Amino acid sequence: MLTEKEIHQLAMNVVGEALEADGFEFLAVNSKPKKDPQFVCLKDKKLHFIAVKGSCYPTNPKRYDKQWMDRIKTHAQKYEAKTYYAGVGFAHAKDYHLPLDKNAPYVINYEGLQEII
């Protein structure tokens, strides 16, 4: 079974690839879980703080802890940065109720960045 750290790393890869494809320039990457934000990026000359969280089915990846995101947003405001949450869900490809395994295929549920206003 995949550990929480491995699930976080998979989520970081998914979000990092999406950010790169969308033209974000990486200034800092912090891949440690619970060290936020995970990505500090520039796009269109604006600073962006992005917090990443990976989860497994049946957890809804779009749900986030409001206090956690408020703390990141307060930090981002000091730098006049926009704040985003990137939730990535994973599930076993053959049966969503099975645990994720290193050698088994999986599906990804990622709908992009959610701006925290």
CATH topology annotation: Trna Endonuclease, Chain: A, domain 1
Major sheet: size, sense and barrel closure? 6 strands, mixed
Give the rounded overall mean pLDDT.
Answer: 95
What is the ordering of alpha helices and beta strands? Answer: HEEEHEEE
| Broad CATH class | Alpha Beta
Percent strand equals: 25-35%
Summarize the structure.
With about 120 residues, the protein is an alpha+beta fold. It has a single domain (about 5-115), classed as Trna Endonuclease, Chain: A, domain 1 (3-Layer(aba) Sandwich), CATH 3.40.1350. The chain has helices at about 5-20, 65-75; strands at about 25-30, 40-45, 45-55, 80-90, 105-110, 115.
Describe this structure as you would to a colleague.
This protein has one domain: Trna Endonuclease, Chain: A, domain 1, CATH 3.40.1350.10. The chain is built from two helices and six strands. α2 links the parallel β3 and β4.
